[in-house]
Design a protein that fits this description.
Strand content: 5-15%
Strand order of the largest sheet: 2-1-3-4
Radius of gyration: 14 Å
Largest sheet: 4 strands, mixed
Shape: globular
Length: 141
């Protein structure tokens, strides 16, 4: 990222992971609605200014390399940070149309735990999903 000022939300993802990159390209192609309000920036964490994004979020360590290796992050201009399924929900809500309804459903209390579990499963198995490669495997803890 070339500047530290966040004008639109930023989607931070693992640029070394083929599955993650394919998913971000899908979002670029199909979720970036023609609405002018649907602007957002997708940035691989390897090239993102994570320190600047974390500073925007209050410097509490909410945006870190370790976190970005494990889940996508959605950082708003106001400094709110969402990770994993809730980051995906915010992206969908930002996209408008039917996608926004799906995103809003993922934020509902009864749905959140299920969405988080599905996200964790996908994240853990992303190396074996379409577009995935051995580079997609999560680092060992």
């Amino acid at each position: 990222m070339s500047e530290t000022r966040v004008v639109d939300p930023v989607l931070v993802y693992d640029g070394d992971c083929g599955f993650c990159t394919s998913s971000e390209q899908f979002a670029e192609r199909y979720l970036r609605a023609s609405l002018s309000s649907a602007n957002w920036e997708g940035v691989p964490f390897q090239f993102a200014d994570l320190e600047a994004l974390d500073a925007r979020a209050g410097g509490r360590g909410l945006v870190s390399r370790e976190r970005a290796e494990r889940e996508i992050l959605w950082v708003t201009p106001a400094g709110d940070v969402y990770g994993g399924a809730q980051a995906a929900a915010r992206l969908l809500m930002r996209s408008g149309g039917a996608w926004a309804y799906l995103g809003a459903a993922l934020t509902l209390a009864p749905v959140r735990p299920l969405a988080a579990a599905v996200y964790r499963w996908v994240s853990a198995h992303r190396h074996s999903l379409p577009g995935g490669t051995p580079a997609c495997a999560l680092p060992r803890r």
